[in-house]
Amino acid sequence: MASVVGRWGAGLLLLFSGIALVLVLSGTSIRDAINYCREVFSARASGPPDAASNSTSTATAPSSDQSLGESAILPGSETVFDFDNAAPNSPAKRKRSRRTAAQPTPDPVIEESGQLAMPVAQPVVAGANSYKLPELSELKRSPAGNSLDEASLSETGRVLEATLRQFDVDASLSGVTPGPTVTRFEVELAPGVKVAKVKGLSDDIAYALAAERVRIQAPIPGKSAIGFEIPNRQRQLVTLGDILSSAAAKAAQHPLECALGKDIAGRPVTINLAQMPHLLIAGTTGGGKSSTINSFVTSLIMRNGPDRVRLILVDPKRVELGAYDGVPHLLTRVVTNPKKASEALAWAVREMERRYDILAEAGARDLVSYNHSIAVGELKDDMGRPLEAMGYIVVVVDELNDLMMVAARDVEDSIMRLAQMARAVGIHLVIATQRPSTNVITGVIKANIPSRIAFKVGSQVDSRVILDSGGAERLVGMGDMLMLTASSSSARRIQGCFVTEDEVRKVVAHWRRQSEPAYLDAEIFTAGDSGGDSGALGDDDDDLLSQAMELVVRSQLGSTSMLQRKLRVGFARAGRLMDLLERKGVVGPSEGSKARTVLMTVEEFESLASGADEVE
């Protein structure tokens, strides 16, 4: 090439080639390059030297209020420079401005509901920045237990088959499922063998295996086999830390997800109280009822702050739930007085009605949709500020029997209304009793609380009261339970988890250090005295007072419980009636648990009544 065009020609050709390469790589057109050169030369020819220096200083050090420039451009900005109309002092910024403008702006994401998707960086959990949840390290894990000996399982299966053959039951062992408390042996019957024939052999099989109790599940749901649940000689401990540390518990996002225990196959089991939506627990002393309630309450305060879940704890025995006093989740102190427990349930009914009024005004169907509308900014107050989301309320009653003895009608009415309607507004019940009789677990309560847990009971009759079927009398106690939900056709056997008092104290101390409880005692217990059966009786209620006077005088029994039964009033109103009768001189003062002494005779009452009739 040098021989053709000479050295200078080759140099110019290389220079133009380099310029063309730079223009192509920078994306600058020839027209833009020519305009740029004209502006530079015209500025140097016409402008004074100090102006040029000022221009340079302005380009390199922009002011804080500069609207355009290198330091004012943010990623994703929609500002694009017009190079054809650029200012004379801005050529040094053109290339960077074009790169910034070339970055695509992401399109907004639209959800299926038609709402804009919430930014990922925003917190999903209400109050996550206000409260620090307790660490799982506060809860103990069970030691790694030894797995069951396969030889021992095979021997038990062989003895089971031999025992069945002794009673002319042709069957073969088809599977073994070891669990923490019992092991289920699955047996397939030969053609022609009736299932009913096998169901009556539980005591004989327990005798042959030297087992405490044997429960027969005939048939196993989803299988053509019969299950023989035989207790393990060495039980495995299931702790609350084991369940909350499991993958199932960590994946659960709902605030009301509670740890329950492990099923017969050793899998962790959690339940969602919002899906239950209410729970009835029953079993004799030592069955594990109180331990399960403690696991529920500890699970709730381990996973939620007081802005998400509030609690009302009723503990007439005064020893089971008192450890949670002072937790900011409580709406009131742990209720130990049965009369106040009735008032607390009545307040829950009023709170349910108040929440329904709020949902109706907002046009929301339930608590979830209401809180979602607040999160996306659809619901605001009159000042245009976002409304406050409503949290869940869980009412835990540790002993229903004590409440039914004091104010049966009031308690039953409150439970019935809450069980029927409170689910949609985020109020849920957990009710426990150690007396599974029809006087305590009435038909009204059973009809409205389909989800039930039965621990060890004394007879098949008690099991039928709880589960509408037998089986709970075959449990071995210490957390061994049968759970029946509204969506299940048969009861599921589970070993409940255990939480120690020391673990509860650590979790409670964690919350006490963060916040003081905001009790609503005045609202719960004062407002409840103003109306309804649990409220006070006015002196002008002559009709009810005259009925009470006639009952007491004619029966010569100054009993408050008698007035409850005969007049169908609550304990508070019956007590108020008795106080008014004492004020009128009909009965004497209270003598503790004894009936009051009746001071008026039947003749005096009849003469008083006849005198009143003559006056009328």
Question: In words, what does this structure look like?
Answer:
With 616 residues, the protein is of the alpha/beta class. The chain has 4 domains: 2-60 and 67-102, no CATH class; 150-231, Threonyl-tRNA Synthetase, Chain A, domain 2 (2-Layer Sandwich); 240-266 and 275-525, P-loop containing nucleotide triphosphate hydrolases (Rossmann fold), CATH 3.40.50.300; 536-615, Orthogonal Bundle (Arc Repressor Mutant, subunit A), CATH 1.10.10.10. It is 42% helix and 12% strand. The protein contains 21 helices and 13 strands. It has helices at residues 2-26, 30-46, 49-60, 94-102, 150-166, 195-199, 202-209, 240-244, 247-251, 289-303, 338-362, 367-375, 400-421, 443-448, 460-467, 501-514, 521-526, 542-555, 560-567, 571-583, 602-615; strands spanning 171-178, 182-189, 215-217, 226-231, 257-263, 268-272, 279-282, 309-314, 392-397, 427-433, 451-454, 480-484, 492-496. The strands form 2 sheets. The protein has a 9-stranded mixed sheet. A 4-stranded antiparallel sheet has the order 1-2-4-3. A hairpin with an 8-residue loop joins strand 3 and strand 4. Helix 18 (542-555) crosses helix 20. The radius of gyration is 39 Å and the shape is flat.
Q: How is this structure best summarized?
A:
The chain has helices at 2-26, 30-46, 49-60, 94-102, 150-166, 195-199, 202-209, 240-244, 247-251, 289-303, 338-362, 367-375, 400-421, 443-448, 460-467, 501-514, 521-526, 542-555, 560-567, 571-583, 602-615, and strands at 171-178, 182-189, 215-217, 226-231, 257-263, 268-272, 279-282, 309-314, 392-397, 427-433, 451-454, 480-484, 492-496. The protein is an alpha/beta fold and 616 residues long. Mean pLDDT is 80; it is low at 46-129 and 527-540.
